[in-house]
Write a structure and sequence with these properties.
Blueprint (H helix, E strand, L loop, with lengths): L3 H18 L1 H4 L19 H21 L4
């Protein structure tokens, strides 16, 4: 099982990749509601960060699928 530091490292690397290669997508990352814990779960823990990492991966994959050159 991955530890929190590894998950945070992956988030940082993926965010940097999005910023560098997909600036049109990067502008929307701050608006992603998954980045903010809900009122019921104010603790930022490994699960919250793992969920956020997965949401970033899905966001990037969807962007690549819908904006690929045809």
């Amino acid at each position: 099982m991955r530890n929190l530091q590894k998950v945070l490292k992956e988030i940082t690397e993926l965010t940097f990749e999005i910023k560098k290669n997909y600036p049109e997508l990067y502008q929307f990352l701050e608006e992603n509601p998954l980045a903010i814990p809900s009122e019921n779960n104010l603790e930022i823990n490994k699960k919250v960060m793992q969920d956020y990492l997965e949401s970033l991966k899905l966001l990037l994959a969807h962007h690549k699928e819908t904006h690929s050159l045809k």
